[in-house]
Design goal:
about 280 residues; 7 strands; 2 domains; seven-stranded parallel beta sheet; Helicase, Ruva Protein, domain 3; alpha/beta
Length: about 280
């Protein structure tokens, strides 16, 4: 094998993790774990679950996904669950949500898979697919932590889907996209898709083909730290006021969501904030 081919073959696709925010139904949690096993999702993350995810109901519903459920990682909030992720897609069940742009599952999940190829030997960071609470979904603040927000098209009379049903639709769409990406020369619509093993056997060129030429977004932990720095500075210099800071920072988050800020841009903004803070303190009485 030539050196370039060896370098390419060391570029595995970015793993996708499923994140459930405050799930309340053990049957739903078990059902999603089973779906993760069905569609080869290796990791399930739970944010402050409101049920016993290792109880009898959840494990019985998980069936062969029981091991994945037992290995599920728990987090206190969504920001912590997404800290190591660069590409995040969140599911939204409402028709409109404070002017956030909504995408179809195909568009949003295609973007989720478009991770940039990494140098040989470097493990890719995970991408995340996030689902909200059964009763009220994700808050606007939580949706603003995602790079894309998807909505499953339903009838207008009753748009709400069960959590496990929504996960089934999205994971099926994600798996179809992975198979098409792995075997781009397969016959078109109506023909049977390749076996799941074809994903692992795909050529590096096929896996790398959808990569974003601008690179992946910055890790969520870096973006959150940058926003925290910026908010503290803007409060200190009087640009923000405590009673309006949250709403104005939400607008900034929306701008960054549309722009998909990258590593170098995060470093630039944090450098500006540090210099401005130094200048403000230097001129303080």
């Amino acid at each position: 094998m030539s050196a370039p081919a060896a370098r390419q073959s060391a570029r595995p696709p970015a793993p996708v993790v499923v994140v459930l925010v405050e799930p309340a139904g053990p049957l739903n949690v078990g059902g999603v774990a089973r779906l993760c096993a069905n569609f080869a999702i290796a990791e399930l993350r739970l944010v402050a679950p409101r049920c016993d995810h290792l109880g009898e109901e959840a494990l019985r519903m998980a069936v062969h996904g029981g091991g994945l459920l037992q290995r599920a990682r728990l987090f206190p909030d969504l920001a912590a669950a997404l800290a190591d992720c660069r590409r995040v897609v969140a599911s939204c069940g409402q028709v409109a949500r404070d002017s956030l742009p909504l995408h179809s599952p195909a568009d949003a999940l295609g973007w989720l898979l478009a991770a940039t190829a990494l140098p040989a030997g470097e493990a890719p960071p995970p991408s995340a697919l996030v689902f909200g609470r059964e009763d009220r979904g994700l808050s606007t603040d939580e949706l603003l932590q995602a790079g894309r927000v998807l909505r499953i098209a339903t009838g207008e009379a009753y748009a709400s889907l069960n959590l496990a049903q929504a996960a089934a639709i999205c994971l099926h769409e994600l798996h179809q996209a992975q198979l098409r990406q792995a075997c781009p020369d397969e016959p078109g619509p109506g023909a049977p898709l390749p076996a799941p093993s074809a994903v692992a056997a795909a050529t590096p060129q096929a896996r790398d083909s959808p990569a974003d030429p601008l690179g992946d977004p910055a890790p969520r932990a870096a973006v959150e730290a940058m926003l925290q720095d910026a908010e503290e500075l803007l409060l200190a210099v009087g640009f923000l006021y405590p009673h309006t800071a949250h709403a104005r920072m939400a607008k900034l988050r929306g701008l960054l969501q549309r722009g998909q800020i990258r590593d170098g841009e995060v470093a630039l903004v944090r450098g500006m904030v540090r210099q401005l803070r130094w200048a403000a303190q230097r001129r303080s009485p």
